[in-house]
Amino acid sequence: MPDPTPQLDRIRAQFTRQADAYARMRQTTDEAGLLGLVSLAGTRAGDRVLDVACGPGFLTMAFASRCGQAVGLDATEIFTARAREEAARRGLGNVEFRSGDAAALPFDAASFDVVSCRAAFHHFPEPGRVLREMARVAKPGGRVLVADMLGSEEAEKAACHDRIERLCDPTHERALPASELLRLFAEAGLEVVAQPRSTLHYDLDEWLVHGGPGEAATREIVSVLEASLETDRCGLDVRREDGRLRFSHRAIAVLARRV
Q1: Could you tell me the domains of the chain?
Q2: Which of 12, 33, 46, 205 is the most buried (most CB within 10 A)?
Q3: What Rg, from alpha-carbon coordinates, does the chain have?
Q4: H/E element holding 225?
Q5: 14: helix, coil or strand?
C-alpha cells in the first residue's frame, strides 16, 4: 500500500503557506452553502459528527451549531489551531479539532452519526481508502457525506482540468468524475440516498490566490485557459466576462447511509 506521508507533507507545507488565503475564499466561508450541507446530512440535535479534512473548520462549526458534538480532523496544524480559536470566539463548547490522517482515522468503529468531507477528495492519493475509513467510523444507519468538485467523464478534458489545478496547487491529485465517486461509495458498502449537483463560478485572479502559484505557473494556467475559450478543452466553461477570464467547477454532494 502506498505510503501517504509524502503527500501529507506536501499538503501541510502548501496549506501552512496558504492558510490565510484559503480561509478567506468565498467557497470556504459560504455560510449558506455550509448550512445546506448540514441540512442535507439530516443533522439532529443529539448527533455526533466527524468532519474529515476540515481545513479551517467552518463546516465543522456549522455542524456544531446544529448537533450534540462535532469533531474536526485535519493534517495541517495551523488549520486546527485557528479553528480552535474561531470556535472559542463563537462560544461553541461542543466542538473539538484534532490533527490526523484522513486515510487512517484515529477513531473507533461506529463512533459517529454523521461523517463528512468537503472540498478535499481531490487531494487524496487513495480516495477509496479514505471513504472506507469514513464508512468504518460511521454508525450503522449513520450518514456519510462527501462534497467536492467533479472531474470530466471525458479523459482528455479531465487531464486538462487536473493540469490546471496542479499548476495552481501542487497537492491536487485528481478531480474524480461522478461515475467513479459513486462507484467508490458502492464499494465501501454505502447506500447513496442523495447526490445534488451545483456549479461554482470563479474569477481567475481570485481563484489563483488560494494556491499562490509562481509567475511561470500562472502564465501556463492563463495560456491553457485561453486555449479553452473556443473548444472547452478542460470542461470548465472558460469564458471572458468584462475582459476577465472566468471558469466554473461542477460539484457534487453525495449523501449515503451506512447499511
Answers
A1: 5-153+170-201+249-258 (3.40.50.150)
A2: 33
A3: 18
A4: helix 215-227
A5: helix
